[in-house]
Amino acid sequence: MLLEERLQTLPRETLKGLLRGIEKESLRSRLGGALATTPHPARLGAALTHPNITTDFSESQLELITGVHASADACLNELTEIHQVVYRAIGDELLWCASMPCGLPAEDAIPLGRYGRSNIGRAKSVYRMGLAHRYGRRMQMISGIHYNFSLPDPQSNDAYFALIRNFRRHSWLLLYLFGASPAVCSSFVAGRAHELQSLSDGTLYLPYATSLRMGRLGYQSDAQASLAVSYNCLDSYAASLQEALTKPYPAYAAIGIREGDDYRQLATSLLQIENEFYGTIRPKRVIKTGERPLHALRERGVEYVEVRLMDLDPFCPIGITASTIHFLDVFLLHCLLRDSPPDTPQELVAIIRNKQHVAARGREPGLRLTRGTHEVTLAEWGGQVLADCGPIAAALDVANATSVYSKVLATAVAALNDPAATPSARVLQAMARDHGNSYVRFVLAQSLAHREAMLKLPLADGVADRFASLAAISLDEQRLIEAADTVPFETYRQQYLSPLRLND
Asked: Is the separation of the CB atoms in 252 and 265 below 8 Å?
């Protein structure tokens, strides 16, 4: 069935009711552009149990989480309110508005996330210690947007995995259109080999880069490169992860589980837990308390997909715009509706290579990518994908009585034909024009402007009281969890990581 025919089978209510949610990571920084190493602000409640405000790898890395919304505006309104509350709680600190980190201290001075003395809280911290030993703390300080997407009516596992396969084939286009990390503070690569060029004192870059975050220096794992995960069906995907979660990996076995009373990691397998798998998109399902994510997928199927390759937009106070959301909706529907043949080991290699090429060289004139057995220019392939998206944008416009979807598609076509219009190019232009080619000075200025804008924006009635209540409830919930523990941490760790808990 052709894409247009599949599109016609989607009811207007489906196109009008697409569901999305956002998870947005941001470092807390000082006014001078250095990492803030203060604890998670008490006014924001308990990172372990708060539904909207938690931390990611570090105490210094906030994660702001919206609920599920049937409109982009509602989703962004909630994300804006969360930002307003956070800015009022962090004093003179900033939310670093770019994906690549601010000025970082020595590795050991980057604080790991702390979640209290319960077994589950301690497990979260031990997991982060494992990440530090495996990949280094600096890499974990990269931040981004995770975009959660689903259709309002249930879809089969096969439909979502077809979407995922097509997303992986074409997601390089998102790096080109929305990548916003062409430069980095030199502190990020201190002591590491790299291929970056010097742009100014303290700033490194690649001249045609779109997203260093998604390139070789970003969220990468040489160990995980050996993990050839197939996305042809839930069974093959689950089997790949099962092995990575249960089979000891020699390099990580050498780290060991613990040294005396101090834990070094949760497990010696290639992945400690499911969240360690660095995919650009994940099949997801809401889990029950204490449930393993892989078990939830096997038992109840895919509920939504999590897009994980979006850079923070440094020109937007909350990191993502409505236009970007509208384009993502068009793009993800394209991935769902287009024919999606099974992936092969050869294609999986080409997908990684294409992603790395576009991350490092996406604006390079004439850049060629691998499609099947041939090479094609980025501009030609991207033009074909965007042309395919035309009927989808038109259908979404009709269903929602708007013209925004066709407009964002036209903007994407214009950016494909003019690399200078992409966010990565605009970042470099702003750095050169206003900040002496300094990455830190550029992001610091943007972050200060965003802070001022959020603090000036009136807080809607009831929002402050609602978040104060959520903070208090989260602290109470953490205390209840801590009081309810009945087994030693080592017993809890072994029980949680038991392979039996991964099965259907």
From this structure: yes
* CB within 8 Å of 362: residues ≥ 6 apart: 172, 175, 176, 179, 208, 209, 210, 211, 378, 419, 422, 424
Q: Alpha-carbon distance 45 to 48, whole Å?
A: 9
**3-class state of residue 265 by DSSP:** coil
pLDDT for 219 beyond 80 = no
Residue 467 carries which DSSP code?
Answer: H
With contact defined as beta carbons under 8 Å apart, do 101 and 185 qualify? Answer: yes
Strand partners, 183: 205
pTM above 0.70, yes or no: yes
In this predicted model, what pLDDT tens digit does every residue of 93-111 receive, in sequence order? Answer: 999 999 999 999 999 999 9
Q: What is the pLDDT of residues 37-61, one digit of tens each?
A: 999 999 999 999 999 999 999 999 9
Confidence band, pLDDT 50/70/90 cuts, at residue 503 = confident
The domains of the chain, with CATH numbers, are 23-153+180-319+437-502 (3.30.590.20)
Q: Which two tokens stand for residue 495?
A: 């029980």
- pLDDT value at residue 217: 83
Mean pLDDT of the chain: 96
Length of the chain: 504
Of 227, 226, 214, whose CA–CA distance to 145 is shortest? 214
201-210 pLDDT tens trace: 999 999 999 9
What phi and psi, each to the nearest 5 degrees, are found at residue 293? -55, -35
Q: Are 91 and 43 in contact (CB under 8 A)?
A: no
Confirm if 185 and 105 have CB atoms less than 8 A apart.
Answer: no
Pairing of strands 258-259, 262-263: antiparallel
CB atoms within 10 A of CB 411: 15
The DSSP code for 459 is P
**SS3 label, residue 77:** helix
At 294, is the secondary structure helix, strand, or coil? helix
